[in-house]
Amino acid sequence: MNATAPVLDIRNLTKRFGEFTALDNLTLSLERGQILGFIGPNGAGKTTTIKILVGAMRPTSGTATIAGADCVRDARRIKRLVGFMPDTFGAYDNMRVREYLDFFGAAFAIPRRVRAKRIDEVLETTGSGWMQDRYVEALSHGMKQRIGVARTLLHDPEMLILDEPANGLDPQARIEMRDLLLKLAGMGKTLIVTSHILPELSRICDVVAIITQGKLRAFGTLDQIMRDLRQQRTFEIQLCGSAQVDAAATAVREALEPGERDGVRALATESLVRFDTARSDTELSAILATLVGRRIDVAQFREIPKDLEDAFLSVTRREAPAA
Amino acid sequence: MIPVLRREFLGILRSPRALAALLAAAVAFSLLVLARWPAGGLVDLSGAGSRGAFLVFAAALLGGVLLLVPAFPAASIVRERNQGTLLLLFNSPIDALGIYAGKFLGVLSFAALVLCTTLPAAAAVYAMGGVDPWRQIGLLYAVIAVMAILSIAIGLLVSTRATSPDAAVRITYGLVFAVAFLTLAPHALTRGTTGLYATIGEWLRRLSPIPVVMHLVGQGGAVGGGILEKDSGVGPFLASALALAAVLAVATIFQLDHRLFDRSRDAGKITDDRSLWVRIVRRFVFLVDPQRRKAGIPGFLNPIMVKEFRTRRFGRFHWLLRLAAGCAVVSLLMTLAATNGTMDWGVETIGGLLVILQIALVVLLTPSLAAGLIASERERGGWSLLRSTTLSGWRIATGKLASVAWTMLLVLAATLPGYLVMTTIKPTMWNQVMLALVSVLLAVAMTLALSAAIGAFHSRTAAATVTVYVVLMILYLGPLVVWAFRGDPFGEQVVRFALSITPLGAGLSVIGMPGFTQYELIPIAWKVAGVTCVLALVVYALQVWRLLRPE
Fold it and tell me: Cβ contacts (< 8 Å) between A91 and chain B: which residues?
């Protein structure tokens, strides 16, 4: 396979269940060693996509390839190329961590001697060596997630697909999981990570895909998505006192286009006026000048920085009326 | 209490299992009336027809309660604990007694509902004449209701202690059947003697509803080689069963508090890291120490099979050794009893009992191992992990079957010394023993295939286990009930047909067990078992293939 070719190539992927379209013409690609943050509200089509990628579901139309292997036709090769961690752990009773990993190593037909060495390696990579004699069912949620990642690494797959790896973790465990995922990307693994904890994703992902109602709404690097969103920026005017909040809000409304006026919020208790606008910096300076000209005491006039959460909300709200 | 009762009762009623149970009871008892209702406008003045109908009615009623009721209380508390809702109940104003009473009455209400569906059949039996409405039908319902109460009390206690719903279901069924059937064994062994053992045997016998029911239907001495020949008082059974249920209830209520959650995580101690002294002691105690670090799974073994052994608590080798040793001791003791002449039963009867022991082990153990082979994977998320590995469907299916087959063969092998002693005493029995062993092996194959096939259609282990137990109990106990009532109401043809459904009858017939010798069941019973086995395996394989292929 060409080293520069995308490791993941999804084209016009569609999945229908009768009348219901779970996935609608999804097209995206991913380079080797990148981390893709795959986000969307519940029922958006994330799990359907993942199931198709790991060969557990057939698409109605379209294609998906991982490292050149077709997810439908080369199901066996896909299993070797992909390490999959579903959102349920899949614990077995009366089994110690090492036995658990040994079983999955044997399931991937890794020879016994190589397997023992490989288990040591993945336990070290995930920082779980100390729990190798623990019973799997007695592990905490955070420990289980680490062992889940260790399991996906056993057969040294090219791509890891992790469904909600940070779900239910405490802040410390979440930071450790984030570091672990960055470490895996550093090892050259390509990762697809779904999560609802968007600040976590924004810190580790190279590429983000936002999906709602089975359709890809935004795809690109975090910067690219933010640039698109920046067309609609949010500003905040901090006043010296709450008495002038209404006057300030009126002045801002007068300065904005009619379509933007509904977005002006006057927060008297916080002495704040907040508004969304697509106006240029020059036009905004005119608004500030108007406020000062009306003797409104402005303490601060600032733009609220946007993050992945805002991008997600912006995209999902934009699509909500179509639902 | 009322909210718990309401939720428990409605929860049961909303489950498809409950609907199936109610429908099955209603249909089965309606068919019973239809089958036994006098045709052609002739009146049966002797009352034999109505007594026959009452007998079948009572047996079906008792069997129905033993099979249906334990499943509901067994999973009741343990499922709530695992789901976390039990903790919510503990933090509500409802106390332990209220929780227990709610759950108890919820299941009891359902049992009462099932019994209500049988009332038209009871009325029809009464209308046929010859059956006393109060002294027979009324007392029968009282006995059945008390047995239901005892089953619920056992189920709730087990549910409090068990760690998973399927384990609770298995243990509850085991205990309920032990109360119904095993309690008769000591009395049978000490029959005609006096002393402490005989008294204990007599007391234990009072816990079983079978002699009471048989007495009520006028068959006190019909079956069991003397087990049921005495006048079986209803009073002692009702009193002892209710007393036992009360004791179990108190024990359960005392355990229903926050201590249920006060269990630390297992630190996972390993024998290899312990002192030399501890290692030596454990080597003597366990022979095969479950706490030692295991070597990796060898390449020549099916990893699924090894995983199945390792994940079963009683699949671990030290437990298998204990089980096998126990079976060997029981089989040798039975043979010893026969050779010493302590029991005037003869070698054939002992041979028959050995066959019954083996098949009882098969019927009791196999579903607990095989019913959840696929269901437990689906229930706990393991199936999606197995699908993501390179294991083929064939290896998954065969690995799982092999893990149960090896266990059962090991257990059965442990009962062989008894046969060996028998053939030494009476060498002419060699061929009979061989044929009986083939029947037992076929029983293993058939039971395993059926359990795996039925269980594969479930996504919850507890439900799979219950369904498999019910099917197997009907398959294995049904023919014995028919045989027990040979002559009246069941004719020769019906008995022969019933006994050929499973290899049990063939085994008993070929070994020369009194009462079975007149039936020629080989090869028909073997053919039936073989065909059933093949069909069930095909269904199992197809279901595994279906579950593994992309959705």
Answer: 380-382
